[in-house]
Amino acid sequence: MFKPRLHIRPVLTRAYATRLPERPRFKVKDPLLNNPHAAYQELPGDLTFIHRPPPSAASPESYTTAPTSPLLRSSTSADVQQSLPPVLFPKSKPEPPRMSDENLAEMRRLRAENPSEWTAGKLAKKFDCTQTFVRLMAPLKKVNKRIALAQRDAEHAVFRERWGEKKKLIKDIRDKRKEFW
Fold first, then answer.
1. Tens-place pLDDT, residues 39-76
2. Can you tell which superkingdom this protein's organism belongs to (predicted)?
3. Global pTM?
4. Angle formed by the axes of helices 101-113 and 120-127, to 10°?
5. N or C: which terminus of the chain has fewer CB atoms within 10 Å of its end residue's CB?
6. How far apart are CA 49 and CA 54, in angstroms?
7. Which whole-number Å values give the CA distances from 71 to 43, 62, 67, 82, 181, in the listed order?
């Protein structure tokens, strides 16, 4: 015989607040109302002009005591040095002097004649400048750059032979991905 099931509905109760509590509005008293130092002046049209002096004493650069702008005043270098804060990062190494045109031409000539001997590092030491400056001012020709990259890849190939299968697979995947860029 078929017996129908009775559906019992569970009793649901709310276990959270229905709305967030609100703080009462912050009430700030108007500092100009009932201020003994403020000067009130009635203007036509139901307007009131209220002037209140600054709460602190006037500084020497104040426009009320010295109406001339501090930027227009003549100042000595000692005053400027006293007003500046101390240096945070003093220069530990002085900047190298600017390279003369003769030295620049010599650097380019050496780099063009024998780029394998006169690398960017050696030229930077010789002319007391950075390697980046050498690469900018005396770049390698495309042919020489290809040769240098081929030599570097040959040196790296020795180390790549020692790679495991997983590292080789990851490198091949990366190279394949670069082809589709």
1. 888 889 888 888 877 776 666 666 555 555 556 555 55
2. Eukaryota
3. 0.40
4. 150
5. N
6. 16
7. 35, 12, 11, 16, 56
Q: List the structure tokens of 125.
A: 């030491």
Token pair in block for residue 53: 């002096």
The full 3-state SS of 112-177, as one line of letters, equals HHCCCCCCHHHHHHHHCCCHHHHHHHCCCCHHHHHHHHHHHHHHHHHHHCCCCHHHHHHHHHHHHH
Q: Which residues contact 108 (CB under 8 A, 6 or more apart)?
A: 137, 138
Please tell me the chain's helix, strand, coil percentages from 3-state DSSP, rounded to the nearest 5: 40, 5, 55
pLDDT at 70: 58
Task: Specify the length of the chain in residues.
Answer: 181
- Residue type at 135? R
The token pair at 37 is: 């130092």
Domain map of the chain by residue range?
99-140, 141-181
Residue partners of 123: CB distance under 8 A and separation at least 6? 107, 110, 111, 134, 138
Q: Which residues contact 130 (CB under 8 A, 6 or more apart)?
A: 124
